[in-house]
Write a structure and sequence with these properties.
12 strands, seven-stranded mixed β-sheet, about 350 residues, binds pyridoxal-5'-phosphate, three-stranded antiparallel β-sheet, 2 domains, Aspartate Aminotransferase, domain 1, alpha/beta, Aspartate Aminotransferase, domain 2, EC 2.6.1.57
Length: about 350
């Protein structure tokens, strides 16, 4: 029997840690037929070639992974079109973001980011000892880059630009990003979080790599969780100028990407697999168009999504609507008092959600 009368724990937590908002995970399915559209996951299960790489790697897990993930970094560098020294991998791009912040933020430095945006941002900033400065997202769900540039002070160390913005969906445009970067001092780090890059079809979206080439204070943050369908294995990466990349690498968790994850990611980047995976992304983009067209026909006016989700700014009705969706067998992601995010999933799941959305009109 465990001792239930253990002495009181008086170890103080850091104030920033004690004050952290709890991360609310996407809802998980229980028994019965439930469509999970709550976490922006890829609905396709792994390709056979990726699955066999996973199975093979599973037989080798008594060994440590390659600490610097040399082969994966090489594959990613080739994929992006940069030098390997410009790529840093981590246990999902959320972890990589944490390492980026740890590499540059001193206690009390300001980190500017849009809100509402990715719910991991306030947590990552607080854990790094930074001070969050949030800038409201415009009513149409687009980032207000001029306001974000105006929020930069001489205490600002980092600006986070989420494009497409999670959970609202729109991308920033190349021209407005150029104007923003011209307005921000060159010693302020600008993180372009491109988690949904492969889903973007807007011709006005920026070319992240070209932006990085012109602006060495930019870091690109990318992931294999969404388009590549490896959310459960945790592989994200940063692309940066070499000196910055070395700093990010220096604070990264040792062996932060497991051997199985490295092998799965390498298999996913192989030309044939990549072609198949990007065809799946095309199918999801087509589904996105079908869903947004149907929603427009139902009379919804929603932000223009370039990601694998749709945003419903429902305000105070959000929580009740989410419960109705759950009751109808569709799990969605509510942000209480603000809105609902609904991922694009398999055709049947999207149809089930469209029926729910119709009932809300
Ligand atoms: C999903 C997502 C990520 C990726 O997270 P991983 O840790 O790589 O799974 C990063 N940024 C945003 C905005 C996201 O929505």
């Amino acid at each position: 029997m465990p001792n239930t009368t253990s002495p009181e724990n008086t170890v103080p937590l850091r104030a920033a840690v004690a004050a952290l908002p709890a991360y609310v995970p996407g809802a998980r399915g229980s028994a019965g037929r439930v469509w999970k559209l709550s976490s922006n996951e890829n609905p396709y299960s792994p390709l056979p070639s990726v699955l066999s790489a996973i199975v093979e790697a599973a037989g080798e897990v008594n060994r440590y992974p390659d600490m610097y993930a040399t082969e994966l970094v090489g594959a990613l560098a080739g994929h992006v079109g940069v030098e390997p020294e410009q790529v840093v991998v981590g246990n999902g791009s959320v972890a990589v973001l944490q390492h980026v912040l740890q590499a540059v933020v001193e206690a009390g430095d300001e980190v500017v980011f849009p809100w509402r945006s990715f719910e991991a941002y306030p947590i990552a900033v607080a854990v790094a000892g930074g001070r969050a400065v949030t800038v409201p997202v415009a009513a149409d769900g687009r980032l207000d880059l001029p306001a974000m540039a105006a929020a930069v002070t001489d205490r600002t160390r980092v600006v986070l630009v989420c494009t497409p913005n999670n959970p609202t969906g729109p991308v920033v445009h190349a021209e407005e990003l150029d104007a923003f970067l011209a307005a921000v001092p060159r010693d302020v780090l600008v993180v372009l979080d491109e988690a949904y890059l492969e889903f973007v079809r807007d011709p006005q979206a920026p070319d992240g790599l070209a932006v990085l080439r012109r602006n060495p204070n930019v870091v690109l943050l990318r992931t294999l969780s969404k388009a590549y369908g490896l959310a459960g294995l945790r592989v994200g990466y940063a692309v940066a100028e070499p000196r910055l990349a070395a700093g990010i690498r220096a604070v990264s968790t040792p062996f932060g990407v497991s051997h199985v994850a490295q092998r799965a990611a390498i298999a996913s980047l192989a030309p044939t697999a990549q072609g198949e995976l990007l065809e799946r992304v095309d199918a999801l983009v087509a589904e996105r168009a079908r869903v947004t067209d149907a929603l427009r026909e139902q009379g919804w006016e929603l932000p223009e999504t370039q990601a694998n989700f749709v945003w419903f700014p429902l305000g105070e009705a959000t929580t009740a609507r989410a419960a109705e969706a759950t009751a109808a067998g569709v799990l969605v992601r509510p942000f209480a008092g603000d809105g609902l995010r609904v991922s694009i999933g398999e055709v049947e799941a999207n149809d089930a959600f469209l029926a729910v959305a119709r009932s809300w009109r």
